């Protein structure tokens, strides 16, 4: 009876989590993780290394009781982390823009030297690509007449092949 009740509770909790996922989107995953980590923080901090923490999360957290599951579900419904996530998103974009702008510690002459170096390498790449294009264009001009005569060549070979086969002595005696 206990196993049956335990299975029913697990399935009910899974269904409730699925409903929350459909209702609130992927934010629910973060909410559940934050709720579980927050409610088990003292137990998690007792572990010395990452391996034992991961083992604790894999073995202990899935075996929560009904009361703890309900508590977690209620916390998830009450949590509002959208403002925090938006703040983190803004901070991420600001940091990304700062990285794209480059370090502001470079003075103007260092920045100009860096740009000149980049410009020189881009010019060299352009010259290399132009050379490749010229080689390909030359090959194209050389092969263009051959490609135009290729259908005629195939046609004449098809017609001459049966004549060649019939002229060979002993060809008809071959048994495959």
Largest sheet: none
CATH-defined superfamily of the largest domain? Ypt/Rab-GAP domain of gyp1p, domain 3
E-strand count: 0
- What coarse outline follows from CA principal-axis ratios? elongated
CATH topology of the largest domain: Cyclin A, domain 1
Instruction: State the share of residues found in helices, binned by percent.
Output: over 70%
- What is the CATH domain class of the largest domain? Mainly Alpha
Uncertain residue ranges: 1-6
Provide a short characterization of the protein structure.
By secondary structure, the chain is mainly alpha-helical. It contains 7 helices and no strands.
Can you tell me about this structure?
InterPro entries: Rab-GAP_TBC_sf, Rab_GAP_TBC_domain. The structure is a single chain. The protein has 176 residues and is mainly α. It folds into 2 domains: 80 residues, Cyclin A, domain 1 (Orthogonal Bundle), CATH 1.10.472; 64 residues. It has 7 helices and no strands. α1 runs parallel beside α5 and α2 packs across α5. The longest helix is centred in the C-terminal third of the chain and has 60 residues. The termini are far apart. The N terminus is likely disordered.
Which secondary structure elements does this structure contain, and how are they paired or packed?
Elements: H1 2-24, H2 27-39, H3 41-45, H4 50-59, H5 66-78, H6 82-101, H7 108-167
Helix pairs in contact: 1-5, 2-5
């Amino acid at each position: 009876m206990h196993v049956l009740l335990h299975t029913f509770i697990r399935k009910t909790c899974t269904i409730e989590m699925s409903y929350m996922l459909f209702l609130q989107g992927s934010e629910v995953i973060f909410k559940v993780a934050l709720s579980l980590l927050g409610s088990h923080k003292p137990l998690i901090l007792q572990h010395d290394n990452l391996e034992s923490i991961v083992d604790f999360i894999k073995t202990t957290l899935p075996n929560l009781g009904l009361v703890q599951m309900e508590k977690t579900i209620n916390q998830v419904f009450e949590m509002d982390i959208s403002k925090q996530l938006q703040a983190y998103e803004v901070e991420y974009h600001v940091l990304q823009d700062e990285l794209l702008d480059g370090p502001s510690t470079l003075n103007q002459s260092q920045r100009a030297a860096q740009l000149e170096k980049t410009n020189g390498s881009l010019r060299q790449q352009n010259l290399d690509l132009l050379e490749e294009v010229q080689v390909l264009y030359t090959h194209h001009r050389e092969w263009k007449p051959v490609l135009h005569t290729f259908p005629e060549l195939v046609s004449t070979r098809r017609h001459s092949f049966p004549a060649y086969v019939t002229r060979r002595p002993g060809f008809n005696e071959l048994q495959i």
